[in-house]
Records
---
Amino acid sequence: MIEIAELLPERPGPLWRLVKQCGVNHAVGQIDFTPKSGVPEDEQPWSLASLERVKRAYNEGGFELSVIESRPPLDKAKLGLPGRDREIDIVCSLIQNMGALGIPVWCYEWMPVINWTRTSSTIEARGGALATGYDHELMDQTPFAETGEVSEETLWENLAPFLERVVPVAEAAGVKLAMHPDDPPLSPIRGLGRIMRSVENFDRLLELVPSPVNGIALCQGNFALMTDDLPAVIRHFGTRGKVFFVHLRDVRGTPEKFVEVFHDEGPTDMLACLRAYRDIGFDGVLRPDHVPTMEGDSNDDPGYSSIGRLFAIGYIKGLREAVYYEETH
Ligand SMILES: [Mn+2]
C-alpha cells in the first residue's frame, strides 16, 4: 500500500496539525544535523539520544517517522577534501542510530555545494499563485572560487568510497539509502559537475555498490525531465525493488528551462504514475514535493506553502483511492 507522508520540521507546530487533519500518518523528518561545536558526540543531533527524542515527538504528534530527508554536511566527501572521513563517520553513526530506532529510509543526494536551485520563486502560476522556476540562461555560471571547477568524474570517484563505507553499515542497520536526483538534472552548474541527472546514471549508481539497501528517491519533478515515459521509469526501478521513497510533483519545460506546476495541471499523467507504484508493490512512503505558494500564505519558504501542501495531499489521496479501487472492481 502506498502511504502518504509529509516533510515536517522536527518541532511540533500548526503544520503538523494541518497535515494530521488531512489524515496523514507518516512524517519525513527534516532535522538539523549541523554539528554543534563543543558538544559531546552522544549529544550531537545524530546521536541515539537526540534522534530518539525527535522520533518520540513525531510519534506524540500522531506520525510514524518513516524517512529522514536531511543530511549532515557532506561537501568534503563529495569533493574528496580533507575532513571527508569525519563527515562519513557521522553518516555511519546516523544510520546505525536510525536502525536502532527503526527509522527505515535515509534520503540523501550527491549535489556538491549547491542543493536544489531556482532562478525565480515568484513566477505567476494558476490563479495568481507563485511558482518556482529555473532558466539556465539566467543562472550565474561563475565557478565557485572555493572549489574551482569540479568534474563529473571526480564526483563518481568520491561517491564510490562513500558507498563502500556506508552501504555495509546500512545493511547491518536495516536502513535503506535513497539517492535523490540532482535538481535541476543538469551539469555543470557554476562549474560544478552534477551526476545524478539521468536514468542511465541511476543505473550506474545501483551497480557501483550492489546491495539491497542501495536505491533511489524517485523525485518525479526531476525524473520527469529525464524521460518522456515516467511510468516506465517507475517500473524499471520498481520491479528491481529500488524505489525506496517517492517525491510527487510536476514541472513544465526542459532541464534548461522549466516552471513548477500544481500537481493536477502538469504534463505528467499522475494517475498512470500511481498505477505504476501500485503495480510494483511500492510499500514505502510518497510525499508531495514542491507546491506553488497560494493566496494567504507566505512565500518565505518557496515550494513549501502550507496551503499548497493541503491541496496536494487531497489530490494525491484521491488518486490513490482511484488506483486501489480500480484494482478490485
Ligand atoms: Mn524532490
Note: The pocket of manganese (II) ion is lined by residues 180, 219, 221, 247, 289 (CB under 6 Å).
---
Amino acid sequence: MDNNAKKQAVVIGGGIVGACCAWSLQRDGHQVTLVDPAQPGDSTAKWSCGQMAVSEIVPLSKPGIIKKIPSWLCDSTGPLALRPSAVASLTPWFLRFIACARPARVEQIAGELASLTRHVYTDYAPLIEASEAKTGRKLFREHGVIEVFDSAADLEAERVHFDVRRRHGFEVEEMNAEAIAEAEPALAGRFRHGLRLGDWKAVSDTEGFIQAMTQSVLDMGGERITAPVRAIDTQGGRAIGVTLEGGQKLAADTVVVAAGNGSRHFFETLGVRIPLMGITGYQALLPRPGVEFNHSIIYANGGFCLAPMTRGLQIGGTIEFAAADAKPNYKRADIILDKARALVPELDDSGFEYGVGRRPFLPDTKPVIDRCRKLPNVLMAFGHGQLGLTLGATTGRLIAELARGAAPSQDLTPFSAYRF
Ligand SMILES: Cc1cc2nc3c(=O)[nH]c(=O)nc-3n(C[C@H](O)[C@H](O)[C@H](O)COP(=O)(O)OP(=O)(O)OC[C@H]3O[C@@H](n4cnc5c(N)ncnc54)[C@H](O)[C@@H]3O)c2cc1C
C-alpha cells in the first residue's frame, strides 16, 4: 500500500491481538511501533488453552449456564468463583450478561461471532508461516478437540448449542465410548459420551508464537517499545500520537488500542462507556505429565481443558470474578488439578507450575473492532474474552482495513464500541 508507506501507526498493547494488528499494519505499509510494558509473549494468551476455537460461537451467557450459576457459586470446588471485591463492578456487567441469554439473542450473537471465526485459518495462514519460519518449529497442532461428558443427559443439554454450531457450517461429530477410546487411549473406559470438534486446531506454544510474530514485525521494519502508554494525545479532533508513562511522546497517524483489560481507560474521557470485565482463568502446567493426549480434551462437567502443549500438559479453565488488582488465588488451579488427577490417576504432576490470565470480556462475548467516533484515527481492538487467540489474525486484518480508510470487507456494526 504505497499511500500508507510513510504512515506511522502506534499499537497500544502487544498481546495476541496487538501483535496481530501490528503485523497486519506493518505488512500493509505502515511504520508500526508496538508499545507494551510486558515482554513479548508474556500476556494473557501465554496461559490460554491455545485453541483455535472456531465454533465457540455460542456466547458465554447461554441459558444453560445461567441456570447453573447459583449451584456453582455454592460449591467451593465448582467452575465459577466470585470474590467479594468484584461484586460492585460485576453487578451492572452481569445484568447486561443475563440480557444476552435469551435464545434469539444467543442465536444472533452466534451468527455474528461466526462471521469472524469462519475467516480464522485464512487470516492466520501468513502469520503462522512467518512465525514457524522464524522459529524453525511447528507451532500449530492440527488435531481438533474432543469434548467429553459424564452422562447422556449432559450431552443432550448441549445439543441445542451444537446444533447452532452445525447450522453455521462447523463440524460436530458425536462420539461413543469406543470412538473416544480409539481417539484418546488415556480416556478409555472413562467416558461414553463425547463430541469431536474437528475444525478446531491449536497453538502448541502460545508464548513462542507471539514472540515470533512480534519478531516478524520487527524484521519487516517495525519497532517495539517496552513501556506503558499513559494517554492518547489529541489535536483538532484527531489523535496525533501517544504519551508514554515516562513522558516520552510518539507521533502517530493511526493509534490502535489493543490493550486487553487495559483498553477501557483510554475511552473514558471520550465518553465511550465500555463494560469490559477481566475474568480470571487458571492453569496448572505439568511439564512431564507421563500420559499422552492426542487431542485437547474439554471435560464439560469438570469445567476444564487438558491441552497438550510444547512445554507440557496444561490443565486450565475456571471462571473467577475478582477485582482488577486482586492477587491470584491459585487454589482455583489446585481444584482443577485435583479433578484432573481423579479423572486420570496416572498423571505425574511433579514440578507443576501455576499460570493465570484475565480474559477481557464484554457481556455479550463479542469483541470491539471499531473506529473511535470522536477520534476517527483511533482504532479499537479489544474485549475478545475467551476467543482472543482464535480471533487475533482476523481482528488484525480488519483493523488494517479500517486503517486504510476504505469500507471494511464485512459489516462491523455487531462489534461496535457504541453498542452498550
Ligand atoms: C485460562 C484461559 C484459557 C483461554 N483459552 C483460550 C483458547 O483456548 N482460545 C482462545 O482463543 N482464547 C483463549 N483464552 C482467551 C485469550 O487468552 C484472550 O482472549 C487473549 O489473550 C486476549 O488478548 P489481548 O491481546 O486482547 O489481551 P492481552 O493478552 O491481555 O494483552 C494486552 C496487552 O496490553 C498491555 N497493556 C495494557 N495496558 C497498557 C498500556 N496502558 N500501555 C501499553 N500496553 C498496555 C498488557 O501489558 C498486555 O500485554 C483463554 C484465556 C484464559 C485466561
Note: The CA atoms of residues 190 and 343 lie 8 Å apart.
